[in-house]
């Protein structure tokens, strides 16, 4: 052997030994994982149920209930997210900050699905790439809170933790286990309705979406939007004319569900062992969280040695991790090694949420740190959670459309400079005509917030503002 070949052989052997060692270590830790192993770890945002016996009974009930989503669907999303990770598709994720049981109505679900479909059409047109759609829906009930209590009418009471834990009304703040069962049924019903609508042709690309742009105040912006809508509708009608629109991928679309995996007892109950049947379906044998296709770890519960990371490392679902300004560069390697030891592309989505003023300072270093680990990740921009402020008019929580857009445009620019792919956006939105965020093409101001301020948690983009985001990203790619 030549010197060089010997050197290469040694290198190969030593990297092989390293790889085997790390695989063995990963296998060892993986072997110690069980759906309940998180229970021995320190936990944040835990709920203390006063009636422990009722809580245990509820969990037994949840464990007996059928899965909401199937592992084969989860595996399908997994391969779509691999494409996102490789820069061959874009991920659009959106929905309420906190879903309420009352949002489980035909009109509210329809509005949200139509909005996400319209946004995805605009994005497909701009990026010339497929769009993967994930709703923050059918299970996005639980909320992490900065404080466990709050003062209402001079009295300190437990904070509202989401419809699956307690009620918003001050008289309903004691955590009630039965709400977890209600959460299951509302999730199932919501997803069932989405499935019925999609199978009935609601997602047919010829669906008569409302593209009315009469609200757009700036004539230049309006002209730009009109150009996109015309090009879009023309492409669709051209495909129809030549008969190229009959494929099932144009007749219907995939739609996935997601929520923050916050209440680990609930998530554990829906963690089911599954293995593929040869000749029938593919996929990996393992533990699947069957309460949603995709779940994420919030910015408040992502401690390396904490219960949430422990739970998430054992499931086969693709997962998200929120990355806020306090995320330390040196944490990325360890965290990614724990949750994705096999370095599967698309398994982990890093959802960055810094705020429009901090992103320029923090994201470049975060990208460098992740690139250094060699881990493939999807970078997704959440331009909502770092841009919340109080309205000077009324004191309610709001977000400025321009700050949201500015964080997205910064993310696009920084990823381009770094040679990484901004794989998606993560938005809080609703199809209803709410007035919770200010700005956008309709020109909502602080004074307008009181017109239709509905949210019990964070302010959402309304349909028009959410479409503004899609049009602007689409433009970015077209120009
Ligand atoms: C959220 O997505 O609603 C949320 C609470 O986000 P974060 O964990 O990033 O604060
Ligand atoms: Mn939120």
TrEMBL record:
<comment type="pathway">
    <text>Metabolic intermediate biosynthesis; chorismate biosynthesis; chorismate from D-erythrose 4-phosphate and phosphoenolpyruvate: step 1/7.</text>
</comment>
<comment type="similarity">
    <text>Belongs to the class-II DAHP synthase family.</text>
</comment>
<dbReference type="GO" id="GO:0009423">
    <property type="term" value="P:chorismate biosynthetic process"/>
</dbReference>
<feature type="binding site">
    <location>
        <position position="385"/>
    </location>
    <ligand>
        <name>Mn(2+)</name>
    </ligand>
</feature>
<feature type="binding site">
    <location>
        <position position="458"/>
    </location>
    <ligand>
        <name>Mn(2+)</name>
    </ligand>
</feature>
<feature type="binding site">
    <location>
        <position position="322"/>
    </location>
    <ligand>
        <name>phosphoenolpyruvate</name>
    </ligand>
</feature>
<protein>
    <recommendedName>
        <fullName>Phospho-2-dehydro-3-deoxyheptonate aldolase</fullName>
        <ecNumber>2.5.1.54</ecNumber>
    </recommendedName>
</protein>
<feature type="binding site">
    <location>
        <position position="97"/>
    </location>
    <ligand>
        <name>Mn(2+)</name>
    </ligand>
</feature>
<dbReference type="Pfam" id="PF01474">
    <property type="entry name" value="DAHP_synth_2"/>
</dbReference>
<dbReference type="InterPro" id="IPR013785">
    <property type="entry name" value="Aldolase_TIM"/>
</dbReference>
<feature type="binding site">
    <location>
        <position position="353"/>
    </location>
    <ligand>
        <name>phosphoenolpyruvate</name>
    </ligand>
</feature>
<keyword id="KW-0057">Aromatic amino acid biosynthesis</keyword>
<dbReference type="GO" id="GO:0009073">
    <property type="term" value="P:aromatic amino acid family biosynthetic process"/>
</dbReference>
<feature type="binding site">
    <location>
        <position position="136"/>
    </location>
    <ligand>
        <name>phosphoenolpyruvate</name>
    </ligand>
</feature>
<keyword id="KW-0028">Amino-acid biosynthesis</keyword>
<keyword id="KW-0464">Manganese</keyword>
<dbReference type="InterPro" id="IPR002480">
    <property type="entry name" value="DAHP_synth_2"/>
</dbReference>
<dbReference type="GO" id="GO:0008652">
    <property type="term" value="P:amino acid biosynthetic process"/>
</dbReference>
<feature type="binding site">
    <location>
        <position position="428"/>
    </location>
    <ligand>
        <name>Mn(2+)</name>
    </ligand>
</feature>
<keyword id="KW-0104">Cadmium</keyword>
<dbReference type="GO" id="GO:0003849">
    <property type="term" value="F:3-deoxy-7-phosphoheptulonate synthase activity"/>
</dbReference>
<keyword id="KW-0808">Transferase</keyword>
<keyword id="KW-0170">Cobalt</keyword>
